[in-house]
Amino acid sequence: MTKGSPFRYFEARHEVIQRAMIMYIRVPLVLRSVEGLQYEHSIDICHETVRFWWLRFGPMFASEIRKRRVEGLRSSHWRWQLDEMFVKISGEPDYLWRRRL
Questions:
Q1: Which pairing describes strands 92-100 and 81-89: parallel, antiparallel, or unpaired?
Q2: For residue 19, what are the domain limits?
Q3: 90 DSSP assignment
Q4: CB atoms within 10 A of CB 47
Q5: Euclidean distance between CA atoms 49 and 51, whole angstroms
Q6: In what helix (H) or strand (E) does residue 20 lie, and over which residues does it extend?
Q7: Fewest CB atoms less than 10 Å from the CB: which of 3, 56, 76, 84?
Q8: Maximum Cα interatomic distance, the chain, rounded to a whole number of Å
Q9: What is the value of pTM for the model shown?
Q10: Residue 42 covered by a domain
């Protein structure tokens, strides 16, 4: 038995649902902001629809994002770097550091 599309029973096209979910996941927007941004693209949906889509498809999108992030970190040869320096603060030497990718 083959798996079908998870969007097959919805009237909205899967591109619309994907765009709404990406807006809600990637950018910290509230549901009504996602509704307004979709309306600017001539897509009339309710914020409750976006909430329903989030409850239904959110875990699927989150797992895909996590999987891509892990694959990207494995394929690239990134290294942690440490910035460090000694400074005098109030006459006493201090060691300052920060890490960056």
A1: antiparallel
A2: 14-76
A3: T
A4: 15
A5: 5
A6: helix 14-26
A7: 3
A8: 73
A9: 0.53
A10: yes
Tokens 């690239």 sit at which residue?
Answer: 76
Domains identified in the chain, total number: 1
Q: What is the pLDDT of residue 67?
A: 83
Measuring CA to CA, how many Å separate 87 from each of 22, 60, 81, 83, 100? 44, 48, 19, 13, 20
Residue 62 lies in a domain: yes
Is 87 in contact with 96 (CB distance < 8 Å)? Answer: yes
Q: Which pLDDT does position 72 carry in this prediction? A: 64
- Give Cα separations from 40 to 24, 25, 33, 101 (angstroms): 16, 19, 11, 37
Whether 35 and 46 have beta carbons less than 8 Å apart is answered as yes
The mean pLDDT values, 10 residues at a time, for the chain of 101 residues are 68 78 78 83 83 84 80 63 81 80 58
Which candidate, 68, 53, 46, places its Cα nearest to that of 15? 53
> Phi first, then psi: what are they for 61, rounded to 5°?
-65, -40
